[in-house]
Amino acid sequence: MMNIVLCDDYAPSLDKLGKMLEKIFISHDIEAKITFCSDDPEAILQFIKNNPTDVLFLDIDLKSKISGLELGKKVREMDKSIYIIYTTGHIEYVLLAYKIKTFDYLTKPVSMNKLEETILRLVDDMKGENKKYLKIGNRQTYISQDDITYIRKDGMKLVFETTRGTYATYSSFSKIKHCLPANFVQCHKSYIANLDRIANVEARENTIVFDNKAQCYIGPKYKNNLLEVINHG
């Protein structure tokens, strides 16, 4: 699920942009939702601090003490992975906006064709290996590999436990193993663990504890290999 936040000082612009985005999501079967809209920079920062956010649409002239450029810098300090897309009528700010690692810059009034092009390019970018996103299921659902703590087999389904929530899809370990980087190691017949998120291995209890307090099991068949990989890479 792609979580999108919108920030603009003009309420009609927020409403119009939201409706355009929803049409694009439906048209291209993109699993995404607009999780928060506001004209208040402080409210945007607070929401992003406490909620998973993948994309931020941000106006530059917010008619407040904090400009869109300043807000973008603060967001970038909080989370370097968020895609920032600026929407504004001030063309002179383009170069300044790109210094904040902006994904795109849309001039107002935002056209449907340009917005659609940006969203499709965004989805393609999430597919790229350099972004470390993993597609799950048949829909356009992408989750960051870095967010995954472990993957659990549950009957005909795979359940992806992440720092941003739980995702499930009909699949098998054999189908996804080739898509996973080397830091994902099978530790049990029903679990694949992300070694980068392990906080502790309780060998006597055959349990892995992750940095977000989640836990999974270690199977006898996989224990020696797991410990070898952890200890010697």
Oligomer: single chain
* Structural class by SSE content: alpha/beta
Instruction: Report the span from N to C terminus.
Output: 32 Å
Low-confidence runs? none
Biggest beta-sheet profile: 5 strands, parallel
Count of DSSP-assigned helices: 7
In sequence order, what are the helices and strands, one letter per element?
Answer: EHEHEHEHEHEEEEEHEEEEEH
The CATH architecture category of the largest domain equals 3-Layer(aba) Sandwich
Query: What is the mean predicted local confidence, pLDDT?
Result: 87
Strands, count: 15
CATH topology of the largest domain: Rossmann fold
Q: Largest beta sheet: what is the strand line-up?
A: 2-1-3-4-5
Inertia-based shape: elongated
What is the alpha-carbon Rg in Å?
A: 20 Å
Q: What is the share of helical residues? A: 25-40%
CATH hierarchy class name of the largest domain: Alpha Beta
Question: What percentage of amino acids are in beta strands?
Answer: 25-35%
- Counting structural domains, the number is 2
The CATH homology group name of the largest domain: Response regulator
Summarize the structure.
The protein has helices spanning 11-27, 41-50, 68-78, 94-98, 112-127, 173-176, 220-232; strands at 2-7, 32-38, 55-59, 83-88, 104-107, 133-135, 142-144, 148-154, 157-162, 165-170, 184-188, 191-194, 198-202, 207-210, 215-217. The chain is of the alpha/beta class and 233 residues long.
Structure, explained:
Helix 2 packs parallel to helix 3. This protein folds into two domains: 130 residues, Rossmann fold (3-Layer(aba) Sandwich), CATH 3.40.50.2300; 85 residues, OB fold (Dihydrolipoamide Acetyltransferase, E2P), CATH 2.40.50.1020. The chain contains seven helices and 15 strands. 33% of the residues lie in helices and 32% in strands. It is elongated, with a radius of gyration of 20 Å. By secondary structure, it is an alpha/beta fold. Strands 2-1-3-4-5 form a five-stranded parallel beta sheet, with helices on both faces. The longest helix is centred in the N-terminal third of the chain and has 17 residues. It starts with a strand and ends with a helix. Strand 1, helix 1 and strand 2 form a beta-alpha-beta unit.
